Recover the amino acids of this structure.
């Protein structure tokens, strides 16, 4: 499975972005997909995950501000990010668990104060 993220960019505090993760194959059979992020000088951390049935789990740091979703018809997963804060600045990666963990190349999100 190849994954390609897009939608990152520079936004001011309080702004919004929507990230996309396009898969090279059908995602309907992929039980779990997730978003992770790695801020400057930090380890990669979990952001959110979504099951094939649509059940979502969020990290406490983004709960209430971020929404994960997936569209099996378009083989794409999304991350809607609202009320962005400078501490959300990071490279965001999508992950798919399909007989192993597959990762995208990442997309940069920068939130200015």
């Amino acid at each position: 499975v190849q994954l390609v993220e897009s939608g990152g960019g520079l936004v001011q505090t309080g702004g919004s972005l929507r990230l996309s993760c396009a898969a090279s194959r059908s995602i309907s059979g992929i039980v779990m997909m997730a978003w992770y992020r790695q801020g400057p000088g930090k380890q990669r951390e979990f952001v959110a995950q979504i099951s094939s049935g649509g059940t979502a789990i969020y990290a406490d740091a983004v709960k209430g501000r971020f929404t994960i979703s997936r569209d099996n018809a378009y083989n794409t997963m999304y991350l809607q990010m609202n009320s962005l804060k400078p501490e959300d600045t990071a490279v965001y990666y999508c992950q798919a668990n399909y007989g192993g963990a597959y990762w995208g190349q990442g997309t940069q999100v920068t939130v200015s104060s």
Q: What stands out?
A: The CA atoms of residues 3 and 23 lie 5 Å apart.
